[in-house]
Automatic annotation (TrEMBL):
Protein name: AEC family transporter
Domain of life (superkingdom): Bacteria
Subcellular location: Cell membrane
Lineage: Bacteria, Pseudomonadati, Pseudomonadota, Alphaproteobacteria, Maricaulales
Topology with respect to the bilayer: Multi-pass membrane protein
A Pfam short name: Mem_trans
Segments passing through the bilayer: 6-22, 34-53, 59-81, 102-119, 125-147, 159-181, 193-212, 224-246, 252-272, 284-305
Keyword Membrane recorded: yes
Organism: Hyphobacterium lacteum
Membership in a protein family: Belongs to the auxin efflux carrier (TC 2.A.69) family.
Length: 308
């Protein structure tokens, strides 16, 4: 069994447990938003702080891989907009296809990279998150502002505040400052944050499973197929090509491809709900990309490993 497949199976098993807990009623559906919020706002920043603050950046080269990932997201955004005349659908549905193609579930990929590539993989994905979260959010909000149906359009100030107050970005930035000055790398504070961080990924994976909506897979299947194809097949090819052109090789190349091949994130549904996207199509995309990524993720990373 390959390392990536060996890491993927327990991750999807935990996602399946989350779906089973919600489906069985042992954890009612109305409780899951609070669990997801706890993991996202309370625990994930602690995890990212702990990872970044303790990282030894003298032993790893991250800049080319982070740049490749950023250019990958920008390229996918440009590609989807260029394909709009060919997709032939209404504005809200197009925004959902766009979000499906460019959004990624960073915390799921963080868990996978940690199990597959160790500390270096964990650090690299964390840095990719802090650089690309603003890029992806700006692109998604811009597209929803133009083609969404909500009468409430976000202003520039609200978009900027949404990005700079993102708890994942704040956790990474705080960890970077601590790394530079040598703060909280040992001692009680570091131990508390590390303990909180270890609780983040299991809760996130359980919440991902609980959010799966299989009934949404029947919503506009041809558009769903376009969205999932762009995310799980086209995106890893684009990310891999850019990384290769920038000289990224080895595990770093595999991680960039892993980021490109990530399933969609539930945050896309929230943004579609707020800004007039097609919520049903977005829910279907998150569910379908999560399910099919169990097949495409190991294949994409295997190809990247052979190339690198």
């Amino acid at each position: 069994m390959s390392p990536i497949l060996g890491a993927l199976l327990p991750i999807f098993a935990v996602i399946g447990v989350g779906w089973g807990l919600r489906r069985s009623g042992l954890m009612p559906a109305e409780q899951w938003p609070a669990i997801s919020r706890l993991a996202y706002i309370g625990l994930s920043p602690a995890l990212l702080f702990s990872v970044i603050s303790r990282a030894d950046f003298h032993t790893i080269t991250v800049a080319p891989a982070v740049l490749a990932a950023a250019l990958g997201f920008l390229s996918m955004g440009i590609l989807v907009i260029a394909l709009k005349p060919l997709i032939r659908t209404d504005g809200p549905a197009f925004t959902s296809i766009f979000q499906g193609a460019v959004r990624w579930n960073g915390l799921v990929i963080l868990a996978l990279a940690t199990l597959s590539f160790g500390l270096d993989g964990e650090v690299l994905v964390s840095l990719i998150m802090v650089v690309t979260i603003p890029i992806v959010n700006i692109m998604a909000v811009s597209v929803l502002t133009v083609w969404g149906t909500s009468a409430k359009k976000p202003d520039v100030q609200s978009v900027i505040w949404r990005i700079i107050s993102n708890p994942l970005i704040l956790g990474c930035l705080a960890g970077g400052v601590a790394n530079i000055f040598g703060w909280f790398q040992t001692g009680p504070v570091a131990e508390v944050l590390a303990l909180m961080g270890r609780a983040a990924l299991p809760l996130i994976l359980l919440a991902v499973g609980a959010a799966l909506d299989f009934s949404a897979l029947n919503a506009r299947r041809h558009l769903l197929a376009i969205s999932v194809t762009l995310k799980l097949i086209v995106a890893p090819l684009v990310f891999g090509a850019i990384a290769w052109a920038l000289g990224v090789r080895g595990d770093a190349l595999a991680i960039v491809v892993l980021v490109g091949a990530s399933p969609g994130a539930a945050s896309a549904y929230v943004l579609a709900q707020q800004l007039g996207g097609d919520r049903r199509l977005t829910a279907g995309d998150v569910t379908a990309s999560t399910l099919f990524s169990m097949i495409t993720l190991p294949l994409a990373v295997w190809i990247a490993v052979q190339m690198g």
